Amino acid sequence: MPEANMLDRLYVHERERPETVWLTQPLGGDRLEGFSFAKAMGEARRMAAHLRALELPPASHIVIFAKNNAWWFLADLAIWMAGHVSVPLYPTLTPETIRQIITHSDACLAFIGKLDGFDAMAPGLPEGLARIVLPLAPTHPGLASSPKWADIVAKTAPIADSPTRTPDELATIIYTSGTTGVPKGVMHSFGSMCSAQGYIDELGMRSDDRMLSYLPLAHSLERTLVEMTSMLLGFHVYFAESLARFVEDLRRARPTLFVSVPRLWHKFQSGVFAKMPPRRLALLLRIPILRNIIRRKILDGLGLGAVRFAGSGSAPIPAELIAWYRRLGLELLEGYGMTENSSYSHMTRPGGVRVGYVGQPQPGVRHKISAQGEILVKSPGNMLGYYKAPELTAEALDADGFLHTGDLGSIDPQDNLRISGRIKELFKTSKGKYVAPAPIENELLLNEALEMVLVTGGDKPQPFALGVLAEHVKARGTDPAQRGATEAALLEHLDRVNASLDQHERLEKLIVVADAWTIENGMLTPTLKIKRAALEARYAPHVEAWYATRERVVWFDG
Description:
By secondary structure, the protein is of the alpha/beta class. It folds into three domains: 6-237, Rossmann fold (3-Layer(aba) Sandwich), CATH 3.40.50; 249-423, Rossmann fold, CATH 3.40.50.12780; 426-556, ANL, C-terminal domain (GMP Synthetase, Chain A, domain 3, 2-Layer Sandwich), CATH 3.30.300.30. The strands form seven sheets. It has a five-stranded mixed β-sheet. Strands 2-1-10-9 form a four-stranded mixed β-sheet, with helices on both faces. Strands 4-3-5-6 form a four-stranded parallel β-sheet, sandwiched between helices. β21 and β22 form a beta hairpin. α1 crosses α9, α2 packs across α3 (70-81) and α2 (37-53) packs across α6 (149-155). The termini are far apart.
């Protein structure tokens, strides 16, 4: 890991590449604002001077509450240069969770920036919390009297020194996205955050690379793979304007490195299938004279034509989806990591992908499997611990420095890691048999008609699955003939999956739900993972009726 941290590297970029554009921020429509290293560091230095002038206690905790944008990076920098600790908040939290995190983190100040639906979230901000309003923030009475970033920068002289921070100092507290229970505050040092250097070395990342920042910066994956690597290396980061303009954002950035989560890789595929049926596409890709033309047209249309390395993380990705993108000429490298180790743990290597495995340990990482089958990881990215939770810290980090991940897995002779599910996700049927849902869900997702799946059935004789259809299948409407064809394909797929499972794992039925599972309705985490407890509670009143019916594929429109 590097001796110099992200601040030290940025001072070098500022000095040696002052006019090189580092950040590109959309301002709506076709309007863009570019930040050279000189401009970006100039604004961060002025804000750092302002924070110093506030005379906050050393290492004060300061919230960043905004969607991804250039000023998110600059606020983070200013906080660090002023000697403080950043506390990012997901931009989609409920008021109750916002208040809980701000209170628990002992935050004394918040940067409020670009947000959707702020009216609903604003009550979560404690009344006495000081605020600084970033550019692109919503207009709201609760922000009207707070100082604005632009005004502060315009009237404040920059700090003249270039302060650094030691590797062991606390840099940030990242609150977990909360698939279960109350979010925990994961404390990371400057040293653990700079484990991102391992990605730079392994992937051969370059200063002329380009990335699009769109996954939540409050999550460890985006923080490590985009913010940290760009600060250390100095490549160009583009920010996404909105979900509605996402493909346009990709086409503008033409990223050379692109990381996403399985749900978005599914949505890309679904968008392709909406324009070209899967069977026709598969046929065209088998014709040598057309193959490269079709590949290039699809990847360019997605804005991924310039990608050198594409990655998937945050959740398991079905093997067939990896194979489908490979047929398009895009090799998806799967990664594995946690908030607790700065998302620096395992990664498949270019040309060395073993489907079904998440790769080998990153440089400096050690792994082993406990007697109970749990994956244990010792990483340079391991956290300092959970904020104000020494008991939880002791449970997660053992005396030898290994993080107890809560994941079940195995290691093959080539040191590749396979994940078979999470310990807390195991459920017991009424027959007393344990079921690990994640591997079954991955098998179900091999059917192109399904976009999201939940396998459940605790205390039932056999498990069952809930599924949401992919957009290109929903677009066909509710025509009986179309629904019948989809149902037949799903039933065939269900039988095929069941044939590969042990008797106690076999699915009683598949419930196709019309509901949307979204972040906004609380069914997905901010990183697009399914919230099992929330989904199980949502559909609990209907389970008995589903089990009573003889159909094995049930359409639930309620």
